[in-house]
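Methods: example folding runs. The two proteins below were folded one after another, and each record is reproduced exactly as written to the output file, sequence line first and structure-token line second.
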Amino acid sequence: MEWSDKKILVLGGDLRLLYLADVLKDVFHQVGTYALDGAEQLSGIERFDSLESAMQWADITVTPVPFTKDGTHLLTKDDTVIVLSDFSNQLRENTILFGGNIASSVLEAAQTKNVLCYDFMKMEEIAVENAITTAEGAIAEAITLSTQNMNQENCLVLGYGRCAKAIAKRLQGLDAKVTIGARKETARENAKAQGYQGISLEDIPELISTQQFIFNTIPAMVLDAEIIDKVNPDAVIIDIASAPGGTDFEACKKNGITAKLSLGIPGRYSPKTSARILLSGIVTSLEN
């Protein structure tokens, strides 16, 4: 069977997967959906009314990015609740599964059923494009929430992974004064080589009061209550680290500081672009 003849199911997710379901029709002969908010808008696609019927029909199942936010349920935007254990139980043998940061419990179940798993976030092209989209959206949110220009303003980026690098590069393009806070000395040196200031996380308390925009990408508590007490009241904090983030949001609320845990940015700011990126990852994986 050619892979384009396989039945592909889009399960759960946000606007990215809604757009993806639509463009999959150009590549696959049979496309289905379950628990996909807005799927009723799409023509030429089969909609299922139960998890069991959907997954027993599918040869390929495409799940959200991220796969889960709470470690217990599949990410859905409608009222459908899909428990990960139920999802694992419904996996059909010798099928294919795509998703972003697929839960380890599901990967274990998939292995016992000979399900071939592809993780979008382990695909280099998708991870890079996702970082770019996330960076653009994070900066857009910061600008929207602030009363200040970014031009010549002090911006602190915590972490120096893919997303942090993408944010810093775009901030630099806006003529902001960018500082990178990172644990590793090598990361700080690399940041300095790119024209940023580099500080250790231990130095954050000394610098934080001068920063107008703060972006956190570190999935650990780095902006605790003691540090938040030193933050400029007019500053904006955008935290894109995995829930619950690395910011004490209660302390921010108490101090009247604008702070937002901003997850799933690509699905909110550029879902159509993100859908094309995911489609490319699916096709490339199946062709290989």
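Second run, written to the same file directly after the first:
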Amino acid sequence: MYVFDGHCGVNEKSRLNVRIITELAWQHHFVTNMFIRPEFASVAENFQADFTVINACNIVDEDWEAHGLHSEVFVIFNIEKHMAVIGGTFYGGEMKKGIFSMMNYYLPLNGVMAMHASANIGKAGDTAIFFGLSGTGKTTLSADPKRELIGDDEHGWDDEGVFNFEGGCYAKTIDLSKENEPDIFNAIRPNAMLENVWIDANNEPDYFNSSKTENGRVSYPIYHIPHHQPNSRGNHPNAVIFLTCDAYGVLPPVSKLSAGQAQYHFLSGYTAKVAGTERGITEPQATFSTCFGAAFMTLHPTKYADLLKKKLQEHNTHVYLINTGWTGGVYGVGKRMKLPYTRKCVDAVLDGSINNATFVKDPLFGFEIPTSVEGVPSEILNPKDSWTDKAAFDETALKLAKSFKENFKQFILPGNDLSVYGPSV
């Protein structure tokens, strides 16, 4: 039996003290990587847990049907008792995301924005937040050698600025290479832990072999990133980036959103289910996940949207939508957006050069598209230009727009109809 005592959140005013009890050594090592370790022995000696997780991974619920479950696997969190029990699954992510869900409950009630997002900071103190579901590029794009990483997945935004919830990173390893993702590749060294990764006959990891699962992962302490921000904090953000993996291939690689459009797209949380992020998903499927993380949002989505609006207005933060998905056609016809092009779009947002571009308004979705971004071919900036069949583009774009409208009906409230900031269908 192994017991980990630590924190979720570097901000002492907003953190949760968590105790995680596991029966496997590797799970203990996982939470040691992922949560924040007490800095002083005196803190550990006087530790009082705000929330306790018991990981009984070898136990299954044989009466799962009678209990109204979907399988013998169970992940149960009791907010009133401040306790959770996990059974039937060995996946390390259940512990990480379970506590994140609790942070999404407690913090907003105290006016602190909890975010499924990564964050980094530039040399001038300029901070950026990247929202996005697994597979959209949060970890990859925030690991930028020109900037310091605050964190790759879970953050809070309070009156003092942005702060990391975690002490480590949990990156996908599918098709990982030193050329495309050097920071993550080089972070795999002693103390890092591979999970669900194929090991070849020479006892070496094969990141291109997905025969076990496409959801290969690596957890490592954040200090394995050479340019991490030492105190895992940042200023109020200059830019917020919504990342989406558009399987339809009709969204531009980068576009600028108004404040109202930012709320609309935050509540919509459009992306695609990307291979490896959910069981049974082997190709992208269009989906909407509110706040870019519906599974972890324990309050009504509008609570988070209202907090986001408040923060954006208070700190004059600009919002951009970046598509890391397809261009030139739908999945199976077009091609995946090249990572170097996406990085150039992100660079333009973060260094402010995008503000010098000429913008055109998309007639259907309403956001502003730049006509030029340094290092990005002009023909892909406006997605219709990258399609050979223009009529097929119009048909596909309209289909996606109607999906947006249908999905957003659930968020229309009396006196606060944000649907006017969506597609004009």
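Comment on the second run: The two ends are 58 Å apart (CA to CA).
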